[in-house]
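Q: What does the assembled structure look like for these inputs?
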Amino acid sequence: MSKALLYDATICIGCKQCEVACADQNKLPYDDTIAAEQRQSEHKFTVVLTKDDRFMRRLCMNCQVPTCASVCPVGALKKEAFGPVTYDPDKCMGCRYCMVACPFGVPKYEWNKLFPKVRKCVMCPDRVAAGKQTACAEICPTGATKFGEHDELLNEARRRVHENPGKYVDRIYGRFEVGGTSVLLLSSVPFESFGYPANVSTDPLPMLTYRVLSRIPDFLPLGGMVLGGVWWITHRREEVAAAEGPGRKSETGQDDRRPR
Amino acid sequence: MRIKFTFWKLVFLALMVAGAWATMVRFTRGLGATTNLSDQFPWGIWISFDVLCGVMLAAGGFTLTAAVHILNIKRLHDIVRPTILTAFLGYLLVCVALMYDLGKPYNIWHPLIMRNPHSVMFEVAYCVMLYTLVLALEFSPIVLEKFNLKKPLKVIRAVLIPLVICGVILSTLHQSSLGSLYLIIPEKLHPFWYSPLLPVFFFLSAIAVGLAMTIFESTLSAKHFGRQLELPILQELGRVLVVVLGVYAILRLEDLGHRGALKLALQPGREMYLFWLEIALSLILPLILLLQPKVRMSPIGLYWAAALVVLGFITNRMNVSITGFEASAGVHYFPKWTELAVTGAIIAAGFALFGLAVRYLPIFPEERVAGPLAQETRAPDSLTRTVLGHAGD
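A:
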């Protein structure tokens, strides 16, 4: 079944162990300078944001109906049945439509490489496929990041909000956003204050383009018929002229070979 | 041999040198060193101008082939070839620009075998490939005629109508799909420019620009090559342009009204100024000009109205892809000089190739007597052409 991550910002202590484990898992550099960087980038797939004494993780939401996978012309980005949204750099041609389209601004690019790749958290597909937790969930010392079945984690999130009135903002981020995501977030402060878009649609975005695209196969024969039909109608005069041509000529006396 | 360096030749040379340098930087050090693009702003001027505007400026090709070959408006026949040339060059240059912009240009063929029909970019990729091919075939009679290759010419003429129909369908899809690209970012694009009608707007404005470009370049090449101007034809195109602009203007206004974006039109800010610049250039000024018979009938009036329409819709494409994106991206984008150099060199190459083609290929009809008598001398000529049934090239 579909796996997911639940991150509860109220339990997080900001130790950044998840950042370290993520860098290790994805063979990315990690040092004090990178640890201090407060944004996702091509070398930092997850980041623990700090504001006063509050923390918030940012990572790819691994959407249930991912916009990035829908816009990728070559299918380099793909939603796996077990949760992760993976990326195949060998397919990618570098159009960067995924970066334009992602409602959370997640995919990053290796701008300074000659053969750049799109980089983002892919929810450790190898580990998950092998029945293990994601690297970030495994290392988390407080259980702020929890790995499990999507439905179970969602129930747990609802229970936490229900049993602790006033502790959380009344929203499980990722439950409805763009049709639901494989990363669920709980927080005591509004998610917008950590840069999560507040106004995202609750419908999956891919339908916005697919309802136009899906008409194309119907449009092709119709367009051909209409254009061909108009051509047929507008060129009637030539056909008439061609049919009447010889007769008219003889009337003007230019063609007298015809027997009378 | 002595080469005379005129002003424009020097400009061309300078643009080519700068472009060559920028090309070297792009293909040795990558996009980061060449562009001001960033994770927040992944599409810049190469997409906004070279691709979006490039395809739009090529729209004369399908507009005029449809008018002449499908609607059978024979009067327009003489200006079909220059518009096909423009369209063909336009699409070739769009392909060139894509090689710069794609992160891995050597994978450009991947959509052929790795298909995702849910992606607008996939549709765009197919339209670019197929329509460039159709344009090459539509252009081929001009070359075949030049070298007097009768057999292939006969083959092309036999399939010309299906070819034109394919071209019109592919263009319709391609022009509109460039608008559809932005349908998927309702929260990111400013309400002036995000609309469920984006594909319709892109298609309608492409027709307007196709007509305007035809007027614009016919006038320019008439001046440059000392040809006689097809004034009555251009006057007719001017009239059609008024109607297309009118339809577009009403639809745009209705759409802005229904989405509640009109009230934003009075809130000062970067978006508002550029929105009004676009509306003034693309709709208000050209309509005011073209609705006056005196302007609509004069070559210079038509020329300026057409130029405004072209500029106006270039502004529109830049607004959709840059201005409207900046607020949500949280960064301001201005192209690096190397980005401008590549674009400049591509435009210069376009002009140069157009000039070469006009000089060495039968693009424009044979010279006829200029002056007020020109119309009378033309009429029988086009009649002969009709009877010969060679509407097909």
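The longest strand of chain A covers residues 3-8.
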